[in-house]
Design a protein that fits this description.
The chain is α/β, with parallel strands linked by helices. It contains 40 helices and 27 strands. The strands form seven sheets. It has a seven-stranded parallel beta sheet with strand order 15-16-14-17-20-13-21, sandwiched between helices. It has a six-stranded mixed beta sheet with strand order 1-4-7-8-9-10, with helices on both faces. A six-stranded parallel beta sheet has the order 22-27-26-23-25-24, with helices on both faces. Helix 5 (about 165-175) links the parallel strand 8 and strand 9 (about 185-190).
């Protein structure tokens, strides 16, 4: 038995939580249940006492009413029920009851957030729950008798299972025992190597690691399972997370439950401390810099929520600098209205803003744009309990000083205008891009950084993906003078917000129309985009791409030209941009109408929708999230934070996404480098130059060469370039066989890793790779998947590749659909048992010229059957496991040749076939045959009984187990003892075991316990 198995890991976590965090441990089978149905969601002896203790001022009737309400939430889906329970946890349960004198209304609190020690914290393992089926989660954290956190663990030492299997098990639990998840706050899945946290609505890629115990990010690479437990589950910390860092982001399409990531939790906590100091001090809370895509908008929601608990009824003013950003952020706050406990409002004008501020002495969340402060100069509110949250508080948006331009015009900094309107407010700036090192204005307004979560940290945590770019300016045939003029404009204008600089910038950039707006340029651009997309990006994830156009007229020209080139793309391509009454009428046919933008947004966010390419100008370049979006074609000069915000549209996390690709048609390389100069030094080092020509493409060539070297000795190139289906099929089979040779084991393991790295680089630089190299890389990738699949490392071969994707990979080589025979389809679902019990199949495999493939094929099929026996038959499991291990040991030690080990494995398969035939001859089911094997394992037994008697004993044993085994019997010693007595009474009727073979009883009892461990819990 493996000492470092799942049970060992389970006990390690329990010991940690009891000894270090002060939790009380309960063993599930020993906990009293209200009846034998095992449908108790709550700990029946804990919940009532805890609620009475927390609500001492309320009568018993109030507590009983609260328990009735939380036990009977049956409204809609699991997600909807969970949202109701989450509200009960955070705000208490509203109850109506008779106190003996009169009818009353009050609130029963389920948790004591003020005194953590006034709550009961239990860590419970092996808690059986029965609903649509019986399940037994590994560990559940109960607080006041309510199951709030659920752990699903996988053995640290088993190669065939990992945290992903734990995720699938959690999803199954939610279907089979949904009631247990109604109170759930979050789930944890762990195989010790990976420990990740998510909610009941989280996809697997949204389960994230909690990497800090105290807000220090320096040791995140060393984070382990204990970091998550010590970071989230200390009693006060868990209560804080439940109360302040769990919310529902509801839309008309779906319910999404969100728990803060570790960087959001610690940053918001720091920000609230600074806010308390600022309100009583100089009003400068600080700058909250979390890189784009890392959840800044939700951090603002968590901050607003927590602020209401730590300041005295603050009024929160949220400022953006554009209407569409205002709408996006307002939408985020509106979707979290239940969590915020108040509805945010949007100011329609300066007067509206003034009315909203003057009309209240406290509370309120008010959204406004910067422009509304510029329409007057009188103070709007002089209260000190106003906190101003400024979105995208980057350099250039604000200024405290006046400037006199060359024409004598006086411009006043936006920050000075806001300060004048709200003189006693406190200010916090949220930004996804850093403030400049020499930017004094931003520090004067907001103060220094509160928290920095940079690009490197975000990518390391898989909160975002890295962004790469590919330069294709040459495709447009622009002359060097034109490119020089573009770069000169970038260099001349920093991110200035004063009116004169803006006007001069517009004038100089306007002169570029003559370069960008020619029919020849538009034609070359569109032809190249279509070619690049079709050949390199259409099959990446959902095929979503943005084209960023220089201007609205050019956006429409790009659309019309693409329609000429690909008229069948009418449903595939759309335009999203602002419209005015003066626009040409034909534009409205493409992007007009009041509902157009919302409908386009809905379609573009739907991965299954036919809309794949959106042409934009300014819209969707900030605050617009589509996880599967992985490609952006840039035909617009951008710089600084505007550029960094735009390209971050492709950095969102999505399963299977290596990174985002920005295809540059305008020469943004210099602008990117300049924009990076204010990022952290490690960001500059890691992402200062992400040109695929200098990063991904050299990496691809390097890994391709490494794979070639690891394949040295097998000349596959003579086969794969013949343009012959037969030659290619031979190359796949022979190459796989070659890699499976025992003597090459270490090289093969290296090949598997290096080939995966090659594929990751290829997914980004495919357009630069020669046809011959792409062909060779595809072939090597097929070998990798074949080896992984044959050695039994998951249906996707551990490569993240499904069978469908695998077949598609083969198709890429042959330029047409391929359905190869033999090894390619050897392990399709449901074929394993049929193949193993097919004499013709065994002969075919034994006769293969690729002997290593034959060995791996037989070995995997037999292992599958032995594993199945391990769940059903003590005797057969031990017998065939030993046979297989002895055969493989002899093979590994060089005592058997390839041909000999194949013969041994085929004979073993035939022995397994004979076992099945024997059961059929005796008229026994598989279950009954397992008991027959157990009672007849000692050969001497058959000397005392005829075969009919043995068959009868096996059948009665099976029936007795079915009728007597109860839930959790194998976990309770008293129940186990009772079961053993019942079995012994039955066997005594047949005078079993016979004299002299008393040891036979041990095997029979082991079989009974194995049966219960598997059958009862199925």
């Amino acid at each position: 038995m493996d000492p470092l198995n799942e049970e060992w890991y389970e006990n390690l976590i329990i010991d940690h939580m009891t000894e270090k965090l002060g939790y009380e441990h309960l063993y599930g089978p020993d906990v009293r249940r209200t009846d034998d149905s095992y449908r108790d969601v709550f700990l029946p002896d804990i919940l009532p006492d805890a609620l009475r203790r927390i609500n001492r001022n309320l009568p018993e009737a109030a507590v009983e009413e609260a328990i009735r309400k939380i036990q009977n939430i049956e409204i809609g889906s699991l997600e909807q029920c969970n949202e109701i329970f989450n509200d009960y946890l955070q705000s208490g349960v509203e109850v109506h009851f008779f106190d003996g004198k009169e009818e009353r209304d009050d609130i029963v609190r389920l948790l004591d957030f003020d005194d953590s020690e006034n709550n009961d914290f239990h860590v419970v393992n092996q808690w059986t729950f029965v609903e649509y089926s019986e399940k037994r989660p590994d560990i559940i954290i109960f607080v006041n008798g309510m199951p709030l956190v659920l752990f699903e663990l996988k053995s640290p030492s088993r190669e065939e299972t990992d945290a992903s299997d734990a995720y699938l098990q959690l999803r199954q639990y939610m279907k089979q025992i949904p009631s247990l998840f109604v109170p759930n706050v979050f789930c944890v899945m762990s195989d010790m190597t990976q420990t990740r946290v998510g909610t009941i609505t989280s996809d697997e890629d949204r389960y994230t690691a909690w990497k800090s115990v105290d807000g220090d990010y320096s040791g995140t690479k060393a984070a382990t399972w204990s970091t998550m437990i010590d970071g989230m589950l200390p009693k006060e910390r868990l209560l804080d997370i439940i109360q302040n860092f769990v919310c529902f982001n509801d839309s008309s399409e779906k319910v999404v439950k969100i728990i803060a990531a570790y960087h959001q939790y610690f940053a918001v906590r720091k920000a609230v401390v600074r806010a308390e100091e600022a309100v009583n001090g100089d009003g400068r809370i600080g700058v909250f810099w979390h890189t784009q895509g890392s959840g800044k908008s939700l951090s603002m929601v968590f901050f607003a929520h927590l602020l209401q608990r730590h300041l005295e009824s603050p009024t929160i003013v949220v400022i953006t600098d554009r209407n569409d950003l205002d709408d996006q952020l307002f939408g985020q706050f509106s979707r979290c209205v239940k969590f915020l406990r108040q509805k945010a409002v949007q100011a329609e004008s300066r007067q509206s803003l003034k009315n909203l501020l003057e009309g209240r002495a406290a509370n309120g969340i008010i959204f406004t744009t910067m422009q509304k402060f510029s329409d007057g100069d009188e103070p709007l509110c002089d209260r000190s309990n106003v906190v101003v949250m400024v979105d995208e508080a980057h350099r250039g948006q604000y200024g405290l000083t006046e400037r006199i331009n060359a024409d004598g015009h006086v411009s006043v900094g936006a920050a000075r205008i806001v300060r004048k309107a709200l003189p006693n407010a406190s200010y916090i700036g949220f930004t996804g891009t850093p403030i400049s090192t020499d930017d004094r204005n931003t520090r004067e307004i907001f103060g220094d950084y509160i928290d920095v979560y940079d690009m490197t940290q975000s990518v390391e945590d898989e909160s975002t993906k890295p962004v790469y770019y590919e330069s294709r300016v040459v495709s447009l045939h622009l002359d060097e003078n034109a490119l020089g003029r573009i770069d000169a404009v970038y260099k001349e204008f920093a991110d200035q917000a004063d009116e004169a600089s803006v006007e001069k910038s517009k004038h100089d950039l306007g002169g570029l129309d003559a370069i960008f707006d020619t029919p020849e340029t538009i034609d070359a651009l569109c032809r190249d985009i279509v070619d690049h997309y079709e050949n390199n990006r259409a099959d990446v994830l959902a095929g979503k791409a943005l084209i960023v156009a220089y201007s609205r007229p050019i956006a429409m020209k790009i659309y019309y030209r693409i329609m000429e080139l690909r008229p069948e793309w009418k449903d595939k391509v759309g335009v999203v941009m602002t419209m005015s009454n003066q626009d040409p009428e034909e534009w409205f046919d493409v992007c007009g109408g009041t509902t157009h933008k919302k409908e386009m947004e809905r379609r573009f966010k739907d991965d299954s929708d036919s809309l794949k390419i959106a042409i934009v100008v300014d819209m969707w370049l900030t605050g617009f999230d589509v996880p599967s979006l992985s490609t952006m074609y840039v035909f617009k000069p951008m710089k600084g934070h505007n550029l960094m915000q735009a390209i971050a549209r492709v950095n969102r996390v999505c399963k299977g996404k290596e990174g985002g690709l920005v295809v540059d048609y305008i020469g943004i390389a210099g602008a990117l480098k300049r924009a990076m100069k204010d990022y952290t030094s490690r960001d500059q080092h890691n992402y200062g130059d992400m040109n695929i020509a200098e990063t991904a493409y050299p990496k691809f060539l390097e890994k391709l060469d490494v794979c070639r070297d690891l394949m040295y000795g097998f000349n596959y190139r003579k086969l794969i370039f013949q343009n012959s289906r037969e030659a290619l099929a031979d190359a796949i089979a022979e190459g796989t066989d070659w890699l499976l040779d025992l003597e090459r084991h270490e090289d093969t393991e290296s090949f598997l890793k290096q080939c995966q790295l090659m594929n990751q680089a290829l997914s980004l630089c495919k357009s630069m790779v020669s046809e011959e190299d792409a062909h060779e890389a595809a072939y090597l990738s097929v070998l990798r998947v074949q080896v992984l699949r044959l050695t039994g490392r998951g249906s996707g071969g551990g490569s993240g590749m499904t069978y469908t994707e695998f077949n598609k990979q083969v198709s890429e080589i042959l330029q047409q659909s391929v359905h190869a025979d033999g090894v390619l389809n050897l392990f399709e679902k449901d074929s394993v048992e049929i193949s193993l019990f097919d004499e013709a199949f065994l002969q075919e495999v034994a006769g293969m010229k690729e002997k290593n493939i034959a060995i791996e094929s037989l070995k995997r099929l037999i292992k599958e059957k032995v594993r199945a026996y391990g769940r059903t038959s003590v005797v057969k499991s031990q017998k065939f496991s030993e046979m297989l291990q002895n055969t493989l040991n002899a093979y590994l030690n060089g005592m058997l040749t390839n041909a000999q080990v194949i013969e041994e494995l085929v004979n073993m398969a035939k022995e397994i076939m004979k076992d099945r035939d024997d059961a059929q001859k005796l008229g026994l089911s598989d279950e009954e045959m397992a008991f027959y094997d157990a009672i007849t394992q000692p050969q001497a037994v058959k000397d005392f009984y005829d075969n009919d008697q043995l068959v009868s004993i096996a059948r009665e044993l099976t029936d007795a187990m079915r009728s007597n085994a109860t839930i959790d019997w194998q976990k309770k010693e008293s129940a186990r003892a009772g079961m053993r007595r019942a079995i012994k009474r039955l066997l005594r009727k047949y005078k079993y075991p016979p004299e002299g073979v008393e040891d036979a009883m041990k095997t029979v009892m082991e079989q009974c316990e194995l049966w219960a461990d598997t059958k009862i819990s199925e």
